[in-house]
Design goal:
This is Amino acid transporter ant1. The protein is mostly helical. The chain has a single domain, classed as Amino acid/polyamine transporter I. About 55% of the residues lie in helices and about 5% in strands. It contains 15 helices and 6 strands.
Length: about 525
């Protein structure tokens, strides 16, 4: 059965697909077929020279995760929206990226093909990704494409300015006015570690993703460890989306109650179940281009919510009231987790960098996006705390007077945001799980639906068990964000650049690692004990 091309290419693009028994070698890539297996396994070979950790032979087992690059590209996609529901398919897709895909990222596929096919492609190196129903009955991902400088800045801002902004007034209340220094400190540190990720990506032409960096630095264990940490961060973010959606729906309908089979459900529990049922069909979508396109409007949603907050404080009856303490040491661990959560976007930065038309301008993309994020967080934190004082909730939208129209606009904006972000956030996790399915017979439409459904309902169970938005966010920030955004970038950079790292860089990375470890320990302990109480 032949493989079907799903995209059209220009006449000036040439890519040669060759079989094992041919003597000629392709200049950039060679796709080899292993006839010993029941299906044909392809591997991409890059002419670049890699470190000993990242070298994998042509017949080695495919490395996990294989789907990370394409699934995370949804966070940076600006593709035209198309929509269809999940079903098995066989796709051969050519995606334009600045760098070729290395052997450490070779696709996990099993699909028959003809002996020789010529496929149009770009004359400069491209990355070939193949997704087959033999391996995945998965979602069809929007194709990667090169982004302009402006698009890259917007993608970075959209990744940084997320739901963490809702808790910045609460973090200020808990830690005191001096805690704002931590907001600046974490912003500077995470900006620096973002530039370290770029240097790690540049250390070898074949490195494209965060797991690639882990493998280049620490071998397969490093790749797997980083992938698990990234997937855990994405999964926990979905829990936060559900808690946030349920809290605000419960505030809109505070008197909602239900008794089902003798079980009494309050407004939060009922809204959590309804939210889950509304979100569920979005994770069944086969092509997530539409959701990726809409979720890019997260910046607009953020602006709407912030404007509603300022409107209520400046024009409506709330006003601004100075107060608060200078520093609250006892509550500072909670503040550390909440502030660090605000800058937890490093899982997306390698994809933004790899998709740029001008990757040399990536540091300025980070500088602009981090500056906008910091001043946004600072302004909302100060205004929100001056408005609500010691009564500030973990989500400032819950403090807005319910009778005001602006309050309803802010609440519904927060409720609708997860509908576009939940599916593209949980999809990489689902892809990673599907790669573990042992046989092609299990990679079916029904199994894919089942995996995604189980993931969604598991986030519902956790959100009902620990319905504490602030504590869960502090836990994520203290544990996962500290690991992914502070500790691992420095550790990988030290490992990959050990022969050319300067004393200043080594000292800076060591300091950041120590800050990350100490903050992770005290912040995680504080968040866990808070939820236990």
């Amino acid at each position: 059965m032949g493989m079907r091309l799903d995209e059209e290419f220009g006449a000036d693009r040439v890519l040669q697909i060759e079989t094992d028994d041919e003597d000629n070698e392709a200049d950039d890539y060679k796709i080899e077929e292993d006839d010993e297996d029941s299906g044909s396994d392809f591997t991409l070979h890059s002419p670049v020279h890699e470190t000993s950790h990242s070298q994998i032979g042509p017949h080695d087992s495919p490395t996990w995760p294989q789907s990370y690059r394409q699934s995370m590209d949804m966070f940076t996609g600006v593709t035209p929206p198309t929509l269809s529901f999940l079903r098995g398919s066989s796709i051969l897709r050519s995606q334009t990226t600045p760098t070729p895909q290395p052997s450490i990222c070779k696709p996990l596929i099993s699909s028959p093909r003809s002996d020789k096919e010529e496929v149009p492609t770009l004359t400069h190196p491209t990355r070939l990704s193949v997704v087959s129903s033999a391996r995945f009955s998965a979602l069809e991902l929007p194709p990667s494409q090169q982004c302009s400088y402006t698009q890259s800045v917007l993608n970075a801002i959209n990744a940084l300015c997320g739901i963490g902004i809702l808790s910045t007034p609460y973090a200020l209340k808990e830690g005191g006015w001096c805690s704002l220094f931590l907001l600046l400190l974490f912003g500077i540190i995470t900006f620096y570690t973002g530039t370290l990720l770029k240097k790690c990506l540049d250390s070898s032409p074949g490195i494209e993703t965060y797991p690639d960096i882990g493998q280049a630095a620490f071998g397969m264990l490093g790749r797997i460890f980083i992938a698990v940490a990234l997937y855990a961060e994405l999964y926990s973010s979905c829990i936060e989306y559900l808690i946030m959606m349920s809290d605000n729906l419960g505030a809109i309908f505070p008197s909602a109650r239900m008794v089902f089979a003798g079980i009494h459900l309050d407004s939060y529990q009922m809204c959590a179940i309804i939210s889950t049922l509304v979100i569920l069909p979005t994770v069944w979508l086969r092509n997530l281009s539409l959701l990726s396109y809409i979720s890019a409007g997260g910046v607009i949603a953020l602006i709407v919510v912030v404007l509603c907050l300022l409107w209520v404080g400046a024009i409506n009856e709330v006003g601004f009231h100075p107060g608060g303490t200078a520093l609250n040491i006892a509550k500072l661990p909670v503040t550390i987790g909440l502030y660090s959560f605000c800058y937890g976007s490093h899982s997306v930065f390698p994809n933004i960098y790899s998709s740029m038309k001008e990757p040399s301008r990536f540091p300025s993309v980070l500088l602009i996006s981090f500056s906008i994020a910091f001043f946004s967080y600072l302004g909302v934190a100060v205004c929100g705390f001056l408005m609500f004082g010691e009564h500030t909730s973990p989500q400032f939208t819950l403090n807005l007077p319910a009778k005001l129209v602006t309050s309803k606009v802010a609440a519904w904006t927060v409720v609708l945001t997860p509908l576009t972000k939940y599916a593209i956030t949980i999809t990489p996790v689902a892809f990673g799980i599907e790669e573990f399915l042992p046989s092609p017979q299990l990679r079916t439409y029904g199994v894919s639906i089942l995996i995604r459904t189980i993931l969604v309902f598991s986030t519902l169970v956790i959100s009902l068990t620990v319905p504490y938005f602030g504590s869960v966010m502090s836990l994520i920030g203290s544990s996962l964000v500290m690991l992914v955004s502070l500790i691992l970038p420095c550790a990988c950079y030290i490992k990959l650049s050990k022969d050319r790292i300067t004393r200043f860089q080594l000292a800076a990375c060591t300091f950041i690692i120590m800050v990350g470890l100490v903050s992770a320990v005290i912040g995680t302990y504080s968040a866990v004990t808070s939820m236990a109480k």
